[in-house]
Design a protein that fits this description.
The chain is α/β, with parallel strands linked by helices. It has 14 helices and twelve strands. This is Aminotransferase class V-fold PLP-dependent enzyme.
Length: 463
């Protein structure tokens, strides 16, 4: 094994820097899909743990050589798979520093340098989205854990109104909570609800674009008197549509229900005057979930959990221990009091860097550019022979089909195989669709034109 004195930081970091720059500089022209599978990468990495170690620089070089054929170019401005953003340069640079500083971002007094940046990022997010300035913000891994955080705070709060304390009594024997969701909510809402012990939800019908039907929600709410949580959606996975938030929130609050909004990518519509109408009434909800690694294009992972009642969030997530240098007060709380984790990296710092780089006007321009790019893709796809755009394109999602499921699937495979552009397949309204999710900060009119040309080239080979 190499002696620590012979294995300096410089070699490993120099190799990492060189390979990272090479990857970034070739990203726009790199074929998007990976060229090697996981088993081939494991072979190249070396399957057996060696008896003797290698110098750090050699290990990093081995990793880059072996893994890069299996890396998908998700940061490409023509990558539209799932809902995945790229990484802005300042956010990526900040993320490198976060790893270098290696702070366990749990305690405000112990790690003030990174906590200050995270707190500012949270304050700026509240400002941009028009949410209550007194809300608490926690940085988690992604929207799944942001939904979990909001739902746990909701669970404890609605049970507390009945006189039940989950902190003291647990969940066994507690009043059953009615959890209402729209028929087209994201599957991670159900996942978060299961982890929170809420069980199967009550499903409320939605319209053809996936928007919850207020009349049906009101009827479902009036069918009982048990504690209730309503989950609404800002940005449907397939259509991009938004639940009628103002009307639905009013119905829920009329019966004392807590309202949580799942807005992994769509919550950012609130940042732009052009799209803000899509989330009218958003600020009246009780909790919200979103991702910075989608619309804001910061490196993975960075979800954002927001709860209007700071005391409710801290009551559900907070912990105390004699060894922690706690500074919890009415004005400030420790980061670990707002999220499920005690040990975590300072994932909010790249969000600060992205927002500081763009400013308010740049953030608005980013949201508008994503929406404009989706609209252009929809128009262009609709002009291709046999292609139907299936959704009302209101934000950043476009779903298209080519006649039968078989032809749609073949078109999708041909597009991805060429490597110029990447869109993921799904099923919506019981048919195969090719879904373009515009989430990358660098996607613009030029990249849209290249995307549409690739989509057109993929058509001739489809029988």
């Amino acid at each position: 094994m190499a002696h620590p004195a012979e294995d300096r930081d410089e070699a490993a970091l120099a190799v990492a820097h060189e390979r990272a720059l090479a990857w970034r500089q070739g990203l726009e022209e790199r074929p998007i899909a990976p060229r090697a599978g996981a088993d081939a990468v494991k072979d190249a990495l070396g399957r057996a743990l060696p008896d003797d170690g290698e110098p750090a620089g050699a290990v990093v070089a081995r990793l880059a050589d072996a893994a890069e054929p299996g890396i998908m170019a998700m940061g490409s401005p023509r990558f539209y798979g799932w809902v995945i953003g790229g990484a802005q340069p300042a956010a990526l640079g900040a993320d490198w520093l976060v790893s270098t500083w290696d702070q366990n971002t749990a305690m405000r007094a112990a790690t003030p340098g990174v906590v200050a940046a995270e707190e500012l990022a949270g304050e700026w997010i509240l400002d941009l989205l028009g949410l209550p300035a007194t809300a608490d913000v926690g940085f988690v891994t992604g929207a799944t854990m942001a939904n979990f955080t909001g739902l746990v705070a909701a669970r404890d709060a609605v049970l507390a109104r009945t006189g039940w304390s989950t902190a003291v009594d647990g969940l066994a024997g507690a009043p059953r909570i009615r959890l209402f969701v729209g028929a087209e909510r994201h599957d991670t809402v159900d996942h978060a609800a299961r982890m929170a012990g809420l069980g199967a939800p009550i499903v409320v019908p939605a319209d053809d674009q996936g928007r919850i039907l207020p009349a049906a929600l009101g009827e479902a709410l009036s069918a009982g008197t048990a504690p209730a949580i309503v989950v609404l959606q800002a940005g449907n996975l397939h259509s991009g549509a938004f639940d009628p938030l103002a009307e639905a929130i009013a119905l829920a609050h009329a019966v004392g229900a807590w309202v949580h909004v799942d807005g992994a990518f769509g919550l950012w519509a609130a940042a732009s005057p052009r799209t803000r109408h899509l989330v009218e009434g958003l600020s009246e909800a009780d909790s919200w979930a979103t991702d910075a690694h989608k619309t804001l294009s910061v490196p993975y992972d960075c979800g954002v959990a927001i709860v209007a009642d700071a005391r409710a969030l801290r009551s559900s997530m907070g912990m105390t221990a004699a060894y922690l240098a706690s500074v919890a007060s009415a004005e400030h709380s420790d980061p670990h009091d707002r999220v499920p984790e005690l040990s975590r990296r300072a994932r909010g710092v790249p969000t600060w860097a992205a927002l500081r780089t763009m400013g308010r006007s740049g953030t608005v321009a980013l949201v508008d550019r994503l929406a404009d790019s989706a609209a252009r893709i929809a128009v262009g796809l609709g002009q291709l022979p046999g292609v139907d755009v299936l959704n009302d394109v209101v934000f950043t999602q476009v779903c298209a089909a080519l006649g039968t499921d078989e032809r749609t699937d073949a078109w999708a495979e041909a597009l991805r195989a060429e490597g110029e552009a990447y869109a993921s397949s799904s099923r919506w309204h019981d048919r195969s669709v090719l879904r373009f999710s515009v989430s990358n900060w660098a996607t613009d009119e030029h990249e849209v034109a290249r995307t549409l040309a690739a989509a057109a080239r993929a058509l001739p080979g489809v029988s």
